[in-house]
Amino acid sequence: MNARSRRLIRLSLTVACLLACGSSSAQAPVQWPYAFLRKYAHLSSAEFHDMEQGRVVVKVLPTGVKQEVVAFGVVRIDVPQEYFVAQFRDIEKFKKGRYVPEVKKFSDPPSPEDLKGLSVEPSEIESLKKCRVHDCPVKLPAEAMESFQRQIDWKAPDYREQAADLFRQILLRRVQAYLAGGSATLERYDDKKYSLDLASEFRGLLDQSPYLAEYIPEFDHYLREYPEVHLEGAEHFVYWSKEKYTQDAKAAINITSSSIYRQEDTPGKPFLITSQQIYASHYFEGSLGMALILDASENPTTPRIYLVNLNRSRIDFLRGFFAFLIRGIIARRLQSEMKNVLGSLKKKMEASYLEESSHVEPKAALP
Predict the structure, then answer these.
(1) What is the Rg, in whole angstroms, of the alpha carbon atoms belonging to the chain?
(2) What domains does the chain contain, in order, with CATH numbers?
(3) pTM tops 0.85, yes or no
């Protein structure tokens, strides 16, 4: 029996147990990542099969929150777990690409130097110029909007440089406050007719993600109480990125808090990576991404992982009267985008690992 046949048999048995017996005490328990895929991602046996064969599986999951869209994706990547996580730690190289032209990890502690590479579009400056509370093209709290009117000489020849510098200062202060006090320090968005409390939005995103509390309660607690709670084995960093989701969309400036955690006492020792959006200049009112990196290797010579992505995003367009008309458009776009991203990531990661592996010097034979 070859390796492929063994994998198919193992996958079939796993799916059969998930579909038929669940986690009954009379049966051998299913590892939680696979139980999660069955219970929350609603993967069918056919989708499990596609996943095992290396095809990208993407779907939009149901949610009870009007302004929320949940995109799920999974792909097999033939690299070791540790290699994938090491690449993610180098977030600037990992994330930069066609749709993310600028990205930078904040130093510890953050400094103004970290934001020097952030370019602020002239159109964004003009938006800030006319920005008023509850009528602003850029997502900001009222205090920040008012500071642009007080501190910038809009008649000066260098008003664009002044405004860009102030915008960077506002972003830096937000990161400093978050690192000192966590999600409780997140401010409001006062750009729309309503004010939005970002701390409440983040709690809502976690509440809508019960799988964290169910399967990894210590990590759920860590996310809620950071930085007051220390979790052994958890890593954390913050980065900014400039992202252009489509050709005709405005470039969005985002700040993201990422955490990496490995459950050492869990069979298979999966890695968990979360990405919490703590600021977005456009479109998003909150976002929480979760990535599971599951070891699926047959043996050390054939490294293999399953990358499981679940992104929960709250989008301002979906609060409007015609939200029901555009929800499907947004969902299809996010689904298509995730499929492209995962497919490109698989190719990029496997190619770079193969290239690096081919350059490793063989160990000298023992005398």
Answers:
(1) 22
(2) 3-109+197-357 (3.30.530.20)
(3) yes
